[in-house]
TrEMBL record:
Gene that specifies this protein: phnX
Amino acids binding Mg(2+): D8, A10, D183
Lineage, uppermost ranks: Bacteria, Bacillati, Bacillota, Bacilli, Lactobacillales
Name of protein: Phosphonoacetaldehyde hydrolase
Cofactor comment: Binds 1 Mg(2+) ion per subunit.
Enzyme class of the recorded protein, top EC level: hydrolase
Protein origin, superkingdom: Bacteria
Length: 260
């Protein structure tokens, strides 16, 4: 029987389309004179943000831009400066990206009705999550537990530490009784590394690179091609299941429980 669900935040439960960090990364790198594509920005999404920046700086195309502009490879100091600019850009708008995604509140209500505990992990710091969690709470969403990298000695995804902390808080020792739901490769890998059931969500995800309304507005053929591409990305990362939207989660939980 499923006893716990651990959600990601941006792109999974709030901030449809995972827009806040994308814009902040774009701004921070532009201030350093580096141009990034949205696909480049989104690929490492879900990592601890300083790790995300270092991953972007290590891209061959970005490293070449840096060398052409500064005559050297990016350093730790450069990464830290970009991170400072990222934080400034993120905090300037973060409070506007805290609304729960469609179907979340009904799904949470169903989970609680069935005595399933709700945890969460994130690539945001504790300070960032103070803003996000407050806005989400005001709109009706508050998980039972929130664990950030700051709560586990700064260890981010895809390491399983945040999930392990959630399990301890939930009082659950069997990973097979817990589902991790996320919208990035690092979410899926985090779940697999922790030994829980790993589930990817498609609509409004970072992996899809579009908001739910934009996704649904696509021509049918294009929409189905994107749906399949995102699902295959999740499965390639080790996902056990893929759902279209959060409202599908209760059906998955019920199916797993009926087959237990």
């Amino acid at each position: 029987m499923i006893r716990g669900v651990i959600f990601d935040w941006a792109g999974t439960t709030v901030d449809d389309g995972c827009l806040a960090p994308v814009a902040a990364f774009q701004t921070a790198f532009q201030q350093a004179g580096i141009q990034l594509t949205e696909t480049e920005i989104r690929k490492p999404m879900g990592l601890l943000k300083i790790d995300h920046i270092k991953t972007l700086l290590a891209l061959p195309r970005v490293e070449k831009q840096w060398q052409d502009r500064y005559g050297t490879v990016p350093t730790e100091l450069a990464a830290q400066k970009i991170y400072q600019d990222f934080e400034e850009a993120l905090f300037a708008t973060l409070s506007t990206y805290t609304a729960p995604k469609e179907g979340l509140l009904r799904t949470v209500h169903w989970l609680r009705k069935h005595h399933i505990k709700i945890g969460s992990t994130t690539g945001y710091t504790r300070e960032m999550m103070a803003v996000v969690a407050a806005g989400a709470h005001e709109a009706g969403y508050q998980p039972d537990f929130l664990v950030t990298p700051d709560d586990v000695a700064g260890v981010g995804r895809p390491a399983p530490d945040m999930i392990f902390q959630n399990l301890a808080l939930m009082g659950i020792t069997e990973g097979a009784r817990v589902i991790k739901v996320g919208d990035t490769s690092s979410d899926i890998k985090e779940g697999k590394n922790a030994g829980v059931i790993s589930v990817g969500v498609i609509e409004g995800s970072s992996a899809s690179q579009v908001t739910t309304p934009a996704f649904r507005a696509l021509p049918l053929e294009q929409r189905e091609a994107l749906r399949e591409a995102v699902a295959q990305t999740y499965y390639a990362d080790g996902a056990d299941y893929v759902i279209d939207r959060l409202a599908d989660l209760p059906f998955l939980v019920k199916a797993l429980n009926d087959g237990a």
